[in-house]
Design a protein that fits this description.
Distance between the termini: 40 Å
CATH architecture of one domain: 3-Layer(aba) Sandwich
CATH topology of one domain: Rossmann fold
Radius of gyration: 17 Å
CATH superfamily of one domain: SGNH hydrolase
Number of strands: 7
Strand content: 15-25%
Structural class: alpha/beta
Shape: globular
Helix content: 40-55%
């Protein structure tokens, strides 16, 4: 049995209400073909490719879909995740399922999330892996994003290498960095914030860590301030607001320009 996991989220956002979206999640360990009806209108197709940093806590795509439902009234998003625990981008490139997924629809956005330990130990491999993916995508209309992950809690020295590797990769492929790791670092250095971003294993994200990552993707994809959203997942309202505010601050300070409105 192939261990790669496909998660599909179909999000239809219509009218002005934030409660009119229709989201469905489908998981298949065997990656069987999945037939699903799309909402009316042309969707914006988004594919996340990565590992457990992407799929932990119901997945970045799941929380992002709910933020988009509230903040992007009138738009349709089809969000899919292709992930495997511990996978590198090279692992995905060498898996036949990846090739099939890249060809199954015209992806408007593809997010590449490299293995954090590889980005730290062998940062010189990240850019070539990203370039190989761009070649495999072979669609000049697809916007490619590099998911900058975070340092392990017990090894903050990982952060500069991970950041540098993601930035070099994004430059090589004319992509956009989503600086999640920078947001983690900003909170680590702020002694007044006591929000735990890590799972007890010290490298996977907590619920708050995944929520923070999702808020950064929302800010970059839309150019909008996530702190204006009411969505808080299972977090306390004040905690969610802090994370959404920091996500917006990091995106504004980092200087990326969103490609979707």
């Amino acid at each position: 049995m192939n261990k790669f996991l496909i998660t599909l989220l179909v999000l239809g956002v219509m009218g002005c209400s934030t409660n009119t979206s229709d989201t469905e999640v489908i998981e298949s360990e065997e990656n069987d073909p999945i037939e699903i009806a799309l909402p009316q209108g042309e969707p914006i197709n988004v594919l996340f490719i990565g590992n457990s940093h992407t799929y932990y806590n119901k997945g970045v795509g799941s929380h992002l879909s709910r933020m988009l439902a509230e903040g992007q009234s009138g738009s349709n998003y089809f969000i899919s995740e292709l992930t495997e625990g511990g996978a590198t981008l090279e692992d995905h490139l060498n898996n036949e399922i990846t090739d099939r997924r890249l060809k199954e629809r015209d992806w408007d956005i593809i997010v590449l999330q490299e293995n954090s330990y590889l980005a730290y130990e062998r940062p010189y491999e990240v850019a070539p892996n990203a370039l190989a993916f761009k070649t495999a995508i072979n669609n000049p209309e697809t916007d490619i994003y590099m998911f900058m992950t975070w340092a392990y809690k017990d090894n903050p020295s990982m952060y500069p290498r991970i950041r540098d590797a993601c930035e070099k990769a994004a430059t090589l492929i004319s992509g956009t960095v989503v600086p999640v790791g920078l947001a983690f670092e900003k909170i680590r250095l702020n002694s007044s914030i006591s929000i735990e971003l890590y799972n007890p294993d010290q490298y996977h994200p907590s619920d708050a860590g995944t929520f923070l990552a999702s808020a950064l993707f929302y800010a970059i994809f839309t150019g909008k301030d996530p702190s204006l959203l009411s969505y808080k997942a299972n977090l306390e309202e004040d905690e969610a607001l802090i994370l959404k505010t920091i996500a917006n601050e990091v995106v504004e300070q980092y200087g990326n320009q969103p490609t979707r409105s």
